[in-house]
């Protein structure tokens, strides 16, 4: 099994943030929104957080899909958040600079937390799992999607070529680093057990993506 090589937590380099923000992830981002909406319990007027929202494309798509819910996009990187703020802002869609492991919300005050590609950025994700538990109301819903680490470097290289073969060298290198920094489904399971979240479902949905979702008690 390939050892994990963690990448830096925040994407705060201005060039890195710019390259990420202008890359077209519309297809995968829209799929994320659709999968989330399929799993979201039917309810009115929820408070939802997008943790590690980056340039906010998913956050904005989610807002278009769920205009009745208040969504706050949160990122710890000022460079990324600058791009997110350009998306749109209104009463139901706002942005906040904060560490996802120390959220500026009261205990049991949030209905839903979602996030794409945040987990693999954290050296130790347990503080994140615990923080999500703290701020979510009982019955609150979590939906995270991330990469999972391939078994070998060769498999990681093949994934990069297959899905990002035409991308710039910088993006390819970042994708490769992200795959090596990702957790395996077994490691995620261990984290959930340690944090008392073992009732969440872990599901590999492609050859490189894993969803973690469910309600907290
Ligand atoms: C790979 S990007 C994903 C962005 C967005 N979710 C998307 O799918 O397009 C990961 C984002 O998580 C942010 N991030 C990493 N660690 C964080 C933390 N502890 N608190 C808040 N944001 C964090 C990074 O700055 C980066 O913008």
Written account of the structure:
This protein is an alpha/beta fold. It has a single domain (14-215), classed as Rossmann fold (3-Layer(aba) Sandwich). Helices cover 40% and strands 21% of the residues. It has eight helices and seven strands; from the N terminus they run ααβαβαββαβαααββ. It has helices at residues 14-22, 26-39, 57-65, 78-87, 126-135, 153-164, 169-181, 185-194, and strands spanning 47-51, 70-75, 93-97, 110-116, 136-147, 201-204, 209-215. It has a seven-stranded mixed beta sheet, sandwiched between helices. Helix 3 (57-65) links the parallel strand 1 (47-51) and strand 2 (70-75). The chain is globular and about 45 Å long. The relative contact order is 0.16. The mean pLDDT is 95. The structure holds S-adenosylmethionine (SAM). S-adenosylmethionine binds next to helix 3.
**Helix segment count?**
8
Total number of β-strand segments?
7
Distance between the termini: 34 Å
CATH superfamily, called what? Vaccinia Virus protein VP39
The percent of residues in helical segments reads 40-55%
Task: Map the helices and strands.
Elements: H1 14-22, H2 26-39, E1 47-51, H3 57-65, E2 70-75, H4 78-87, E3 93-97, E4 110-116, H5 126-135, E5 136-147, H6 153-164, H7 169-181, H8 185-194, E6 201-204, E7 209-215
Parallel strand pairs: 1-2, 1-4, 2-3, 4-5
Antiparallel strand pairs: 5-7, 6-7
The chain binds S-adenosylmethionine.
């Amino acid at each position: 099994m390939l050892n994990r090589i963690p990448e830096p937590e925040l994407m705060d380099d201005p060039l890195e943030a710019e390259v990420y923000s202008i890359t077209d992830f519309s297809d995968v981002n829209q799929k994320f929104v659709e999968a989330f909406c399929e799993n979201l319990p039917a309810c009115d007027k929820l408070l939802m957080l997008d943790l590690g929202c980056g340039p906010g494309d998913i956050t904005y798509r989610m807002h278009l899909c769920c205009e009745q819910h208040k969504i706050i996009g949160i990122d710890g990187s000022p460079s990324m958040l600058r791009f997110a703020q350009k998306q749109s802002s209104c009463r139901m869609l706002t942005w906040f600079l904060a560490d996802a492991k120390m959220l500026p919300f009261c205990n049991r005050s949030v209905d839903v937390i979602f996030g794409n590609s945040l987990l693999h950025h954290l050296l130790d994700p347990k503080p994140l799992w615990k923080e999500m538990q703290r701020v979510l109301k009982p019955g609150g819903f979590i939906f995270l999607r991330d990469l999972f680490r391939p078994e070998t470097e060769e498999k990681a290289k093949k994934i990069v070529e297959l899905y990002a073969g035409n991308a710039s060298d910088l993006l390819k290198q970042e994708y490769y680093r992200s795959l090596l920094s990702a957790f395996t489904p077994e490691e995620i399971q261990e984290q959930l057990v340690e944090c008392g979240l073992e009732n969440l479902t872990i599901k590999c949905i492609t050859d490189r993506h894993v969803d973690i979702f469910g309600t907290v008690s």
